[in-house]
Amino acid sequence: MLHTARLPEQTKTADVPFEFKRFPMTTSLTASYEYCRQLTRRTAHNFGYAFLALPRDRRDAMNALYAFMRIADDCSDDTSLNMAERRAALKAWSSAFTAGLHGETPAHPALPAVIDTVQRYAIPERYFHDVLAGVARDMEPVAIATFAELEDYCYHVAGAVGLCCLSIWGIRDANAIPRGIDCGLAFQLTNILRDIREDRDLGRVYLPAEDLARFDLTAADLGTAAATDRYRELMRFEVQRAQESYRRSEALYDLIDPVGRPILRAMRDIYHGLLIEIERRQYDVFSSRVSLPKWKKLWYVGKALLLKQ
What we know:
By secondary structure, the chain is mainly alpha-helical. It has one domain: Farnesyl Diphosphate Synthase (Orthogonal Bundle). 62% of the residues lie in helices and 1% in strands. It is built from 13 helices and two strands; from the N terminus they run ααααααβαααβαααα. It has a two-stranded parallel ribbon. Helix 3 (56-77) runs antiparallel to helix 4, helix 3 packs across helix 5 (111-120) and helix 3 (56-77) runs parallel beside helix 6 (125-137).
């Protein structure tokens, strides 16, 4: 549920793993969790609020999970590195993670907490590698042909993250897995619709070509056609698709442990709130960035905490 590989609303951290040599080769577990907490506090403008809905131990685990995803994303997006260096950074991060899981000394201050979280909550290692594969896709210009292709991309950068989250929150029923993937799809579709301008400027067009053609648009039209009926019909279509993913994921509440339900509610409310804001603006995601005020995010968290009562 963290949406991870594509986190354009977050602030990039300078601590990219390409420069492992800058870090001490040993970091205590306590210091590592603190490192992850500080990274989350600096950069997770949406998720950090939702984490407040968890007890401290699981909140720490979410901070570690977020740190893993944040650092991977930075490997892809760090413009101070050339493309070869970015690929080397992502490969180094993946290798350090795998080595740490298999007993080698962690080579980054976030990794002791990440590895402890993976082991403590029995998170399948393959989910992390699925996410890293999604991050690698974003290192090249993105053009997606069909919705099936978009679903696959969304699984790798959001659905797999959601499955990591479910391991921390507690799964009561195996049916939580497909519903968790639906929730990740809803979040990622919301991100994609909000970030059309930013992604276009980076050479990434996530709206499927088949959808653009349906409304007689091309990737080049995005932005210049923003005030047209064709653009609004396209966006209405995509918002409805995201709404359907939110509806399917509603069943997830009954499929996870009670301790995880408040954070799920907070995260869904925050992201669904962004989708509603896109609609309220009549799909204008170009003139200013779509966001929610801090008070509204805290209000969603407070409402979610009532689920504990």
